[in-house]
Amino acid sequence: MTTIRNGHANGSNGHAKKQLDVVVVGGGLVGSLEALFLARRGHRVRLYEYREDIRNTPQARGRSINLALSVRGRQALKSVGLEHHMIQEHGIPMRGRRIHKLDGSTYVIPYDANSKQCIYSVGRNYLNCQLLEESEKYGNVERFFHHKLVDAQLSKGSLTFQKTDTKEIVQVTADLVIGADGAFSGVRKAMMKQPLFDYSQKYIEHGYLELCIPADENDGFQMPANFLHIWPRGEFMMIALPNQDCSWTVTLFMPFTNFKRLDTPEKLIAFFEKYFPDSIPLIGKNKLIEDFFAGSPSPLVAVKCRPYHVEDKALLIGDAAHAVVPFYGQGMNAGFEDCTLLDQLFQKHNDNLADILTEFSNTRWEDTFAISDLAMYNYIEMRDLVTRPTYRLRKAIDDFIYWLLPRVWVPLYNSVTFTTMPYHKCVKNREWQDKVLKKISTIGLLAALGGAAVAIKLNYFA
């Protein structure tokens, strides 16, 4: 058994009065980013990850291989010096939704018709590798892979890991434990033993399965590249995001009961011929059959909990604190924003952990609950509402008023995706807009009725 106790290694860059010893559990996107933030503040960071080093691992099937990077995530990457690389050298701009109708025709709904802002398709593995590679530049960061968390005494800052390759037990103590170990977090499991810890999870009855549209014979894109492509079909939908090799990651979202019905190649092809006919020549029938039956649909879970901390010793961030369904493209961005906000609190409270963790817990939950609810709603919007004239009319109205009064009227999607407005304020802003438009429509209706009444009277006495 190996025992590692907290210490104060050299390497402080002067930001902190005392070098804290921090253990980050989870070496995924949020955990590796948080390690960078802490390292830049001069703290000692040890990053523990259950899997092997992702830099040595081929893409794992079943996890989305590309993600939508927007302003909140970009702000965090900018703080650690990686935004320019991810945007200019890797990311693929997506300027709007390209909707595929049943007859194969398409139309575009821009994300930002006025200022032309866009989101970026980035590779999950590539970004994770870049974050880990960046951490190699800091002598105060250590990385430990193949370490499974098996026990945690969070109030003592004590963790027990087991090496998955040698089965050796490793005990670790630290000033601060940060759980960034995903939706099924072991750190959160330990935190659930604490009094007054609220927790809920919700699985939706829909799953997802990933397919692929390959590059064309000239190694180019088979569809217009700078869009998120959506095939909305009411109860279910399919989306496609562009990859850097000119292929497309295609994700089919629908009820598990629908997936179960497609149990033969013949049924699968008939289903796609009925609902996604234009996608078949893009994917290829043989590849569609091969990819569909190579895996099984994965579940989608949303997690809400609070508080996020235990005394001044432990904290949850990212999916460990607030896993959301993927339909607003904010899971990674919200997790990255956690790192930004936490860094600001370290600065505000001069590295006083009790104050930092308490304020993070007291202020962050309202926003994460809000984006969780928005993400649930957006699934309905993407698979159904985008096809309705009322949706397109409302978007046109929002875009026009936004163009006319950009400082006053920011549409919901724009506020969530292209600003750092707290998520709960985005929701309140939308509620205010709904009330304004309702009043305007009521006044307009009354004016129209009044005009009609006057016209009738004039005609009656004429």
Helix and strand layout, with pairings?
Layout: E1 2-4, E2 21-25, H1 29-40, E3 44-48, E4 66-69, H2 71-79, H3 83-90, E5 92-94, E6 96-100, E7 106-110, E8 119-123, H4 124-135, E9 141-144, E10 147-153, E11 158-163, E12 169-173, E13 176-179, H5 186-191, E14 198-213, E15 228-232, E16 237-242, E17 248-255, H6 256-261, H7 265-275, H8 280-283, H9 285-294, E18 298-306, E19 309-310, E20 314-316, H10 319-322, H11 331-348, H12 353-383, H13 389-404, H14 412-418, H15 423-461
Parallel strand pairs: 1-12, 2-3, 2-13, 3-9, 6-15, 13-20
Antiparallel strand pairs: 4-8, 5-8, 6-7, 10-11, 11-12, 14-17, 14-18, 15-16, 16-17, 19-20
Helix pairs in contact: 1-4, 1-11, 2-3, 2-11, 11-12, 12-15
List keywords for this structure.
single chain, 462 residues, alpha/beta, FAD/NAD(P)-binding domain, 3 domains, seven-stranded mixed β-sheet, six-stranded mixed β-sheet, 15 helices, 20 strands, 42% helix
